[in-house]
Write a structure and sequence with these properties.
Largest interface: A-B, 37 and 37 residues
CATH topology of the largest domain in chain A: Isopropylmalate Dehydrogenase
Number of helices of chain A: 12
Number of domains of chain A: 2
Radius of gyration of chain A: 20 Å
Largest sheet of chain A: 12 strands, mixed
Order of helices and strands of chain A: EHEHEHEHEHHEEHHEHEHEHEEH
CATH superfamily of the largest domain in chain A: Isopropylmalate Dehydrogenase
Helix content of chain A: 25-40%
Number of strands of chain A: 12
CATH class of the largest domain in chain A: Alpha Beta
Shape of chain A: elongated
Oligomer: homodimer
Strand content of chain A: 15-25%
Structural class of chain A: alpha/beta
Distance between the termini of chain A: 22 Å
Chain lengths: ~350, ~350
């Protein structure tokens, strides 16, 4: 007997069809088929049937509309057809890019129309999409623009890496370490902190989120002995956040901020550069960290790995991170209440 | 019955007498009194008697020569008298600095004379010692100079943070992040890597040590997309180390270098800056990381914490890191063979 879920389903974009996205989506369905929050894929249903067959995964595929996804989920992976792709494993093809992009756009449109609860995105390859005219620095910025198109207002998407053990937000991201130092401003820390605090309230339902703010320098600069940035840039940002009623503390010495006892003292950490955030979370939760975008008017998560073209089609990809991304999206959808 | 140990004892310098050093030394004796590798303290015996009494720790104190330390160890904390200090808890006093310094000098002299197996140092306060004319940037550099005095040759002391889970070596240390980037050179990485490889062989008895070399930038620069330093500075250093027959690999993406599976692939990591090394080891082994100085002609370890004047005299200090420092010194002394 099929139980009709009361919940809106999650919308999973297919990602690059030549990467491990299709494989981990099939494996995630096998793992989550009894979950109370179903998901459906946006992409090419044939690609999923071919992948299941090639990898000997017993996963039926159902072609669905979003409204049919929940009923289909218990017995098949529901796929909303977006278009047809070649999707040769390990051989990315610019000809497939339009379907990859359309799947993301359609996922956002469905969530904003109230037909899906959250967007979960499988990995894309910027290089492949650039060849097809994609002009965004990455997935996150593209989603920000899609949100702006819909809302009309300015959107600053903020990347959080989340795991049950630790949530971190890098204030600067994919730039060299030298450029991260140069780009770090009080304003950027404050804007990021505001969005994190607001979304910890709105999405995680933490009434009074506690933000730890890491220093930039060793020992948070030790009163200026090891760099002035913590005094001149980070400390004023903490003061401004506090003046706005946000429970922010810092700049804190980065090296003593991530052990088990320290982690009980905050809900999220604002980190000043990529590896200050990524080193601790990948050390603690390598397979299960989730990429969550804050600042969007909807829930968006993604697995914390890339397309992995080198192992696509071999059946060896781990679905743990996609499963964690679906689970977090479901958790946040539940907390958002209603459907 | 007292069992006479066959081993040379470890020499523990008292550290700042107003910090937590005396307390953790007493606690370490309580924890390690049955260990096959005894230790003795160099300092003021009265300070240890006063501290034991004030904190209600049942630790007799024995005034000893180094040769008497082993016999005394089973029933008392052996202390080699160096001088008399005030040592008021939490109130550091420049008048005590000469004894603090002499204890370190004497510990090194005894190890170099073959009367002790290794030097273990309790924390000092540079500010206090500067007031008494101390002119070294820190403990490690002071030990380097003491070693040079004895050997006549140039010594480059290299700091390793060690725990059973992970060993890391920051190539640049107590400078701002911006200065760390500016100071990073191929030559510095190569010199550090040579010393680490040599001491992993000589002290840890690892026949062919595997060194992982972390990149400076996120994703190790991603082929120059996020900074050129990994191509221009780090990669040539790895090539030179390999040309010298050292099993070095890198530059490796820093964020995926410290999870459990990755840690099985190397014996130590060369890190490009302080927090790249300290964040992962303090996340994994907050209480039990040990500071080990490589490049010296003797074994030297120390706990990975400071004087902690703020909690001195309260009986709440944890001895775990000092115990780990003594244990590692004992392990390396055992591996060095002979006495």
């Amino acid at each position: 007997m099929i139980t009709r879920s009361r919940h809106l389903p999650l919308a999973l974009s297919q990602g690059d069809p030549s990467g491990i996205g299709p494989e981990v989506a099939l494996k995630a369905w096998m793992s989550r088929r009894d979950d109370t929050r179903p998901f459906f894929v946006l992409g090419d249903p044939d690609l999923f049937e071919r992948t299941a067959q090639a990898l000997s995964l017993s996963v039926p595929v159902a072609r669905v509309t979003p409204a049919q996804a929940n009923d289909a989920f218990a017995t098949a992976l529901p796929v909303l057809p977006i278009g047809t792709v070649r999707g040769v494993p390990g051989r990315p093809d610019a000809a497939d890019a339009p379907v990859t992009i359309a799947a993301i756009e359609q996922a956002v449109a469905l969530v904003q129309a109230g037909e899906a609860a959250a967007v979960v995105t499988n990995p894309i390859s910027k290089d492949v999409l650039y060849g097809a005219g994609f002009r965004h620095p990455g997935h996150t910025e593209f989603l920000g623009e899609l949100a702006e198109r819909h809302s009309g207002g300015k959107v600053l998407p903020v990347m959080m890496l989340w795991s049950p053990a630790l949530a971190v937000v890098p204030v600067t991201i994919h730039v060299s370490l030298a450029r991260a130092i140069a780009e770090l401003t009080t304003e950027l820390i404050v804007e990021t902190g505001r969005i994190v605090a607001a979304d910890m309230r709105a999405k995680f339902r933490v009434a009074s989120p506690r933000l730890a703010v890491a220093g930039l320098n060793p020992h948070a600069g030790e009163n200026g002995a090891m760099g002035r940035e913590d005094i001149e840039i980070v400390a004023p940002a903490v003061a401004r956040l506090r003046a706005e009623g946000i429970d922010a503390r810092g700049p804190l010495p980065p090296d003593t901020l991530f052990h088990a006892t320290a982690r009980t003292t905050y809900d999220a950490v604002l980190c000043m550069y990529h590896d200050q955030a990524l080193i601790p979370i990948k050390t603690l939760a390598f397979d299960s960290a989730v990429n969550l975008t804050l600042g969007l008017p909807f829930i968006r998560t993604s697995p914390d790995h890339g397309t992995a073209f080198d192992i696509a089609g071999q059946g060896v990809a781990h679905a743990a991170s996609l499963i964690a991304a679906l689970d977090l999206a479901a958790l946040l959808a539940d907390r958002a209440g209603g459907a």
